[in-house]
Amino acid sequence: MDYFTxxxxxxxxxxxxxxxxxxxxxxxxxxxxxxxxxxxxxHMIVAIGAAMMMIVSKYGFFDLIGVSDFLRADVSRIAAxxxxxxxxxxxxxxxxxxxxxxxxxxxxxxxxxxxxGMAVGAGMYSLGIAGTALVLLIQYWMHNSNWFNxxxxxxxxxxxxxxxxxxxxxxxVIQEAxxxxxxxxxxxxxxxxxxxxxxxxxxxxxxxxxVVEALEKAPCIxxxxx
Length: 226
Description:
Layout: H1 3-33, H2 40-59, H3 76-91, E1 95-97, E2 100-102, H4 104-121, H5 125-144, E3 152-161, H6 167-176, E4 180-188, E5 193-202, H7 208-217, E6 221-225
Antiparallel strand pairs: 1-2, 3-5, 3-6, 4-5
C-alpha cells in the first residue's frame, strides 16, 4: 500500500468514526429525552471508541504479517476485549435503591452501542445502521405502546406516625389510589415514626407520582420518598 492509498484508507476510517458517532448520537438522544443517566455524549464516545478499537484490531497489525515466523497476530483479541470492557461501563449505569433496580435498559443500550460501533469500524455499515434503527424502534415502540400492558413495579419509602395510623392504613391508601402493594419492609425508628419500604405494582398507565401524591395526603404519614 503506497502513501497516497494509505491516506485515502485513513480518511475512510475517519468517516467510519463519524458514522459511529452519529449512531451513538441517535441512541443517546432517545435516552437523554427520558432523563436517563447516560445521554448523547456517553453513547457517542462509546460508539467512537468501539469503532476505533475495531479498526485497530482489524487493520493495525498488517505490518507484522510475514515479518517473522515467530510472530502471530490475533486480530480478534482487541475486539473481544471491547465486549468485556464495555460491560464494566454498563455496570456503572445500574443502581439499586429501595430494593428496586434501575438503569438496566441504559446499560444494555451502552453495550449494544459498542457493538454498533464495532460493526461500523469493521466496515459493516448496513449492519451498524440497522442495529441503530432497531434499538431506537424498540426503545420508542416498547415505551409508548399499549400492546404490552405489563404492570410496573416501583418502590416508595414512607414514615408513619404511630399515634395517627398504622401499616394497614398505608396499604389502604395505596389500594385506594389504584395500585397494589406487593410487599413491605418495616424499620422501627425513634420519635414514634415507623419507616416502611413498600414495593407497589402500578397498573398500566399509572405513574409513581400518583401513588406519592395519594400518600402525602394521608394524615398518618409524616414523610414520603420515591
